[in-house]
Write a sequence for this structure.
């Protein structure tokens, strides 16, 4: 069962909750914009459904709502940012702004972040580069749920990557994806519907094949993009490892199995190897390579050619990365955002607790 | 049938051939080092087996053995290089050297290359960063053999990515992978043995499933990493597209279906959208983020932890990216490089043609 809520309504609610737990007004606004960009873009697992999760992290003393976010190291094209334990939804745009500033002067800007928390969808941050005629990159590590090829231990998060590339008349190319076969959010959808998962998404605690959508909760693991060794899961492992190292080993955050869990009921590892979780951002000024006008003309040509490719029977077009999310955003801004009944109940309880009306 | 040749023997031969087609001595040395690094590292499809292919490109007037490689655009952290139609084996290390120089002063360096040719293995170029305590990245586009998700047209190459990351006592992390389910070289191995391919590597000309290792030659296509939509092939498509755009749209090279084929018997498209093929390189100075000593200590910890993870039954360890290639290099430098009999025949014919003894 789903119920539909208008964006301004959810915005008002989430913004109030962030203020209730101590975020300054401007940061509450920013956190809300980032959080709800997931709901608008159709990535429901990363949107307002997580609001109470952030609150519980705060209540567990694991999130600082008044962080002093600061640069701790820099070069002309790089910086390391310490998020001071702040909300990733606030720390990440701050860091991406620094990457954009660096790119303005040095051509590119690259910022590694430590001591942060879950940052919402990578797409929001990478797309911040687009209005500046820059390419944006964003990645983050996350709670360990993924077993590398041949491993039965969960050592990596779903570690997403987003690359956002401006075009001219065409909408931008925005590839935003978990480096696993399927994102955890897709399993949650199957769990709610009591459906099986396709083979190749998860493995049992012994590394065996499984179609159980609840397998990860029962000690199993998500599988890197590729599904098995024969189909390239070692390449998905490479991608997840790349994200982990850039986000955390470069910045001084926790990596691999030491990444603190997002859920407050699991304690962070007792022997941290860094501070908080890590992110990595990049901004590349197009005209540090060639004229932005020429580049965009060719991006339009690229997108048009790929979108009009001949398709397999039953599919009417090749989907350009970013198409589904943009279409969702257009629809949901008008028609509203559908929320699952469990999410609605959870938000109502949250509203009651903080004396903020949800309806 | 295979025959084993010592590295110095193959080096001498390939170096002479490159000089015979007009490469200056130093460039012939460099091209040979890059080419044979593939044979040493066990990526047989990209090594000396391709030597006659490069020669045929030269004979078809599609490769310049005396290129004037030059920077055509730059910013403090970026450059665009025009390879002047040169051998990618020479153009690529030249461009990577510029990336490393930029990183020395700006913290990072990013170089897009146009008007180049096949550059061998991405790993060689990315690993050039390692002795400088830098992270290296290398990617290239390539002849269109891959159908994006839902497409039956071949619009992308196998577009590899390499990320090379220094460690301390441990060997470096070197992830070098095609962004398809399987590299074309793996199909060639099956073809030589008359074996079927696993489902999910290739599709028929209509986009249907196939186990025919010769499918690509018969109008079919390679499939992006993920194998099918349900298992994330759209993410593999994102990766291949990312490589194509960074390598060619940023630099002014040909992209997508316009990339000229490596094989000389196929003519390049009559309506090019750029010049030659494109590459993209990056170098990131570790101490532009944190002290290299600290970073390496944590990389050692990362590698040790992942390598010692508990494994599925039948596998004794988790493979760290770069392990198999490094082990191959150690073995083959000692024991020699095994070449398939067809490759040996091809090299003998090449030697005869240029009056360079192969034995």
């Amino acid at each position: 069962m789903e119920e539909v809520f208008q964006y301004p309504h959810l915005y008002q609610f989430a913004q109030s909750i962030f203020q209730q737990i101590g975020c300054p007004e401007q940061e509450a606004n920013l956190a809300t914009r980032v959080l709800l960009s997931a709901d608008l873009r159709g990535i429901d697992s990363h949107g307002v459904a997580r609001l109470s999760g952030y609150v519980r992290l705060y209540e567990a003393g694991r999130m600082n709502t008044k962080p002093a976010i600061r640069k701790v190291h820099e070069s002309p094209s790089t910086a390391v940012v310490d998020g001071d334990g702040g909300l990733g939804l606030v720390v990440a745009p701050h860091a991406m702004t620094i990457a954009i500033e660096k790119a303005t002067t040095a051509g590119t800007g690259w910022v590694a972040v430590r001591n942060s928390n879950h940052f919402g969808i990578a797409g929001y941050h990478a797309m911040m580069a687009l209005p500046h005629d820059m390419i944006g990159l964003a990645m983050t590590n996350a709670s360990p749920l993924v077993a590398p090829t041949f491993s039965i231990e969960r050592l990596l998060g779903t570690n997403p990557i987003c690359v956002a590339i401006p075009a001219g008349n065409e909408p931008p190319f925005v590839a935003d994806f978990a480096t696993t076969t399927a994102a955890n959010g897709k399993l949650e959808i199957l769990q709610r519907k009591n459906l099986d998962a396709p083979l190749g998404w998860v493995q049992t605690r012994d590394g065996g094949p499984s179609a159980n959508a609840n397998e990860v909760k029962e000690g199993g693991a998500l599988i890197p993009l590729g599904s098995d060794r024969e189909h390239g899961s070692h390449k998905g492992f490479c991608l997840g490892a790349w994200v982990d190292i850039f986000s955390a080993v470069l910045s001084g955050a926790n990596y691999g199995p030491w990444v603190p869990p997002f859920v407050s009921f699991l304690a962070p590892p007792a022997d941290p190897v860094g501070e908080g979780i890590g992110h990595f951002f990049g901004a590349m000024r197009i005209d540090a390579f060639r004229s932005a006008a020429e580049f965009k003309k060719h991006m339009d040509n690229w997108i048009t050619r790929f979108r009009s490719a001949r398709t397999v029977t039953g599919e009417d077009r090749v989907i350009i990365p970013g198409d589904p999310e943009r279409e969702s955003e257009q629809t949901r801004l008008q028609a509203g955002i559908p929320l699952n009944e469990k999410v609605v109940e959870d938000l109502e309880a949250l509203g009651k607790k903080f004396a903020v009306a949800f309806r």
Summary: Chain A touches chain B through 85 residues (CB under 8 Å). The radius of gyration of chain A is 20 Å.
